[in-house]
């Protein structure tokens, strides 16, 4: 037993050694450049999929193995680890740092939620829309990490407000206490013994007319402990308005209210059985509260991923694909920020709406009549929801100078990206016609990114010995230290390792060999090849990281497209988009892990919901690649910028 315990402790070390030794016969027996590069590819892919080593550490292996096998010199391998992609990433992270530092993301998220209303379905759509919008410009991980605490706080306060209102209504309308809710009553912050509310008719109350003929006096708490009353609907509504306003102002349940009655304080997390027949105890008051939290978590996780599909900078897989494609096919200048947005935005929008409908139906049911009913009076709970969100927004105060500057720079960056080379009209890059292709999206990102370090945010002052306050310096919108804390260096190294591995496949001839071996697939319909490749990457990305998956498949799918004489974009675009569809498991991607860490979800919840979103995503991508994306890139024609494959075999 002790021997097996040691194996368990050192399992990662043993697995690394075992993998290296088991695959070693491949380069020793065949002794060709293709076999040596294949050995490197298999080792790196195995470690990426199993994460036996950290992803970034594994990404450094090509810089060690490719020179040792004589495939590429070390200087050439090293140049692959910092490319145009990294400059673009630096500029985007500068923007993201400023947005988060000055809380612009919170203002955008809450404002969009306020716009859609407080109906549970519209509220989740508001969270999904704001999360997807932020994810277009920020990383999926940081977006989920930023929005989730906001949503958690809003939902928590909404549930507290609903419980307060329901408890009060049940106590004073039914004359009984809801035993499903364990409550504490307090006066001036001191606990008193729990008691049942008893009702007595008020003198002068006429049951026929429903009116009070004599005035109801509001007595003190000590007197009411001996005499309980039944109140009319108008009296309760009047007190409920005061109750709601004061409750929200007091941060919901922080104080006891004594508007002529004692309001029971409901504990935010109290063990309550979900049903009378169920012996299961849970930390949620009601099943509806638990389901609402589940729905909110999944909406934020999935929308942060879906929003990242829309722009090249939205997710690392898009950036990896763009850099790989532009490096492999330098004569194709059809892929830029504007063209990517044009074909991906409709797909992302459709996926977002269908995912919203699917999640609503799965957790809350989807009542179209109830959702779209016009002129409906808001309930007390809905008014409480709206008030809570409004208060959260008001806490931010008026928009500040730093937020305005960040927003202006953000808009300028987006406009410069779109107008660089829109395709249907000449862009501003035409001003540098002597140097075509020199200015890229990374040029814009760096220009705007540098301004964040230059533009003043606030003045730094100091007090002189005479007591005078004088300015001695200014603080920019972001500092280098703040930028470093946001910069994902691990992703930068991971992407660099993927580029080095792709260059090694080209130099060794492994890409051509793979393409020739896959050429028999040309007999299959193109749509079937696309569907198979899309399903393969979608399945693999559930257990492997998205960047590792796309880095692994790009050197395989590109030669495949060339071998069967299909436009490479026809296969690479859907495969790249589907690589982001990691919705099934908490470990599939960071946004899933972030929302799962809040403890509201079980794995089976994410599997059931994610399976539907995966199917929706692949179906919409297949629809797009067969309809509106085709004329944009002339996908049915093999392009002149793609090389013609020659029939070669591995020596």
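^ structure tokens above, recovered residues below v
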């Amino acid at each position: 037993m002790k021997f097996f315990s040691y194996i368990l402790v050192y399992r990662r070390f043993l697995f690394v050694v075992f993998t290296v030794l088991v695959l070693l016969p491949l380069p020793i027996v065949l002794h060709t450049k293709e076999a040596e590069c294949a050995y490197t590819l298999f080792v790196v892919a195995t470690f990426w999929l199993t994460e036996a080593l950290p992803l970034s550490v594994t990404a450094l292996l090509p810089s060690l193995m490719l020179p040792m096998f004589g495939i590429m010199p070390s200087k050439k391998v090293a140049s692959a680890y910092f490319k145009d992609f990294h400059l673009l990433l630096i500029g985007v992270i500068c923007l993201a740092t400023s947005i988060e530092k000055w809380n612009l993301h919170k203002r955008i998220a809450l404002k969009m939620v306020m716009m859609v209303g407080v109906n549970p379905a519209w509220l989740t759509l508001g969270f999904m829309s704001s999360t997807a919008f932020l994810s277009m410009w920020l990383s999926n991980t940081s977006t989920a990490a930023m929005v989730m605490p906001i949503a958690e706080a809003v939902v928590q306060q909404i549930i507290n407000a609903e419980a307060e209102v329901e408890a009060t209504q049940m106590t004073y309308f039914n004359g009984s206490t809801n035993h499903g809710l364990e409550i504490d009553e307090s006066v001036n912050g001191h606990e008193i013994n729990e008691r049942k509310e008893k009702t007595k008719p008020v003198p002068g109350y006429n049951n026929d007319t429903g009116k009070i003929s004599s005035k109801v006096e509001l007595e003190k708490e000590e007197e009411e402990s001996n005499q309980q009353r039944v109140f009319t609907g108008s009296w309760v509504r009047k007190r409920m308005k005061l109750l709601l306003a004061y409750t929200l102002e007091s941060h919901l349940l922080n104080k006891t209210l004594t508007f002529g009655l004692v309001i029971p304080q409901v504990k935010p997390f109290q063990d309550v059985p979900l049903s009378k027949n169920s012996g299961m105890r849970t930390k949620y008051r009601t099943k509806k509260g638990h389901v609402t939290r589940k729905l909110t978590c999944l909406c934020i996780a999935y929308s942060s991923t879906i929003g990242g599909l829309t722009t090249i900078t939205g997710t690392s897989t898009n950036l990896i694909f763009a850099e790989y494609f532009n490096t492999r096919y330098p004569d194709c200048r059809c892929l830029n920020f504007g063209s990517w947005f044009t074909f991906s935005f409709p797909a992302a929008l459709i996926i977002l709406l269908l995912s919203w409908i699917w999640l609503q139906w799965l957790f809350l049911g989807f009542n179209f009549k109830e959702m779209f009913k016009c002129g409906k009076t808001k309930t007390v709970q809905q008014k409480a929801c709206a008030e809570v969100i409004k208060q959260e927004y008001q806490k931010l105060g008026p928009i500040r100078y730093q937020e305005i500057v960040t927003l202006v720079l953000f808009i300028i960056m987006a406009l410069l990206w779109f107008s660089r080379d829109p395709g249907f009209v000449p862009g501003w890059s035409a001003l540098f016609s002597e140097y075509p292709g020199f200015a890229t999206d990374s040029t814009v990102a760096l220009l705007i990114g540098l301004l964040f370090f230059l533009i003043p945010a606030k003045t730094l002052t100091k007090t002189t010995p005479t007591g005078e306050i004088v300015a001695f310096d200014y603080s920019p919108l972001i500092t280098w230290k703040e930028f470093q804390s946001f910069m994902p260096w691990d992703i930068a190294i991971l992407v660099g390792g993927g580029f080095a591995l792709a260059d090694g496949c080209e130099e060794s001839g492994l890409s051509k060999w793979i393409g020739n071996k896959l050429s028999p697939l040309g007999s299959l319909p193109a749509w079937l090849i696309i569907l198979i490749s899309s399903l393969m990457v979608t399945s693999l990305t559930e257990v492997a990281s998205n960047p590792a998956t796309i880095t692994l498949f790009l050197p395989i799918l590109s030669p495949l497209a060339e071998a069967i004489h299909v436009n490479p974009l026809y296969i690479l675009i859907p495969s790249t988009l589907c690589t982001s569809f990691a919705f099934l498991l908490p470990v599939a991607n960071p946004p899933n892990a972030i929302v799962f860490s809040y403890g509201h979800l079980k794995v089976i919840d994410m599997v059931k919901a994610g399976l539907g979103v995966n199917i929706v995503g692949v179906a919409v991508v297949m629809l797009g690649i067969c309809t509106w994306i085709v004329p944009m890139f002339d996908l049915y024609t093999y392009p002149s910028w793609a090389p013609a494959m020659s029939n070669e075999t591995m020596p």
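The two ends are 49 Å apart (CA to CA).
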